[in-house]
Amino acid sequence: MPAHASFPPIRLLAVGDGAWTVEFGAAIDPAIHGRVLGFCSLLDMLSSDGRLHGVIEWVPTFRSVTVHFDPEQTDAMALHDLLLDVAGKSGVLSAAGSRWHIPVCFEGECAPDLIDVAAAKGMTPDEVVGVMTGTVFSVYMLGFLPGFPYLGAVPEELDMPRLASPRKVVPARSIAIAGRMCAAYPWESPGGWRLLGRTPIRLFDANNARRPALLAPGDEVVWEPIDATRYAELDHECAAGRFDLTLLMREGGQ
Predict the structure, then answer these.
(1) β-pair type (137-142, 189-191)
(2) 252 burial type by CB count under 10 A (0-12 exposed, 13-18 middle, 19+ buried)
(3) Residues 230 and 131 in one domain
């Protein structure tokens, strides 16, 4: 199988009779994820040119991409060979997507675990917030819930395990950490990650057929601190559908 000297061998795994999973490695690693993004970019090009007849969709993860297809419209082994060839040409994609500057309130009930995390790390709450807002996070994948982004990497000084007892209810739009990962909950749900803040920005819009999830793999995120008063103002604007999301976005990771 084609492989760069510095990369693990590419593997293709059958997922039933209607999908192939293309594995680029076995670790959460920026270079491996860059290959995932590069592969998806090439699939976008092939799809636009009409060369992926019968392919329904592809789903990227930290280290792999699963390509779903209709076996009645596509020869599985021919697609296998095409995907292997494309994967070998994927390269490493950098600065993909957009950089989002998303407001977050790190105060009071928006940040129920902030004081505990600060104490555990021998830091002040303001120092924890400074680390979070001073880090450019990369969106690796979406999962768990519609639009739920897994972002890396949390700086080592904030590496914390999950809660011993998960919460039954995590408020929607909570910003959380666990280990070296960061996440943002689009919906109210159970969860065991440590909650450090909350954004008023809606992370999933079912009415947006083109892009219901605000964030996508390859995007970058910068958390920008706001106080509780500004949070309430923006929350009201977003709930009423009056907030312009393009104000948060900068193309090409700038």
Answers:
(1) unpaired
(2) exposed
(3) yes
Asked if 170 and 109 touch (Cβ cutoff 8 Å), the reply is no
Least confident of 37-46, 101-110, 226-235: 37-46
pLDDT in tens, 91-138: 776 555 789 999 999 999 999 999 999 999 999 999 999 999 999 999
Q: How far apart are the two ends of the chain, measured CA to CA in Å?
A: 36
SS3 call for 78: helix
Whether the CB-CB separation of 90 and 39 falls below 8 Å is answered with: yes
Domain identity same for 132 and 210: yes
Two tokens at 44?
Answer: 């976008």
Of 38, 66, 88, which residue constitutes the final position of a domain?
A: 88
Q: Which two tokens stand for residue 180?
A: 């070296």
Q: What are phi and psi of 138, to 5 degrees?
A: -105, 135
CATH number of domain containing 19: 3.30.1360.40
> Encoding tokens for residue 70?
């209709």
Q: Assess whether 51 and 150 both reside in one domain.
A: no
Read off the tokens for 17: 């009779």
4 belongs to a structural domain: no
The DSSP H or E segment spanning 141 is strand 137-142
Domain count, the chain: 2
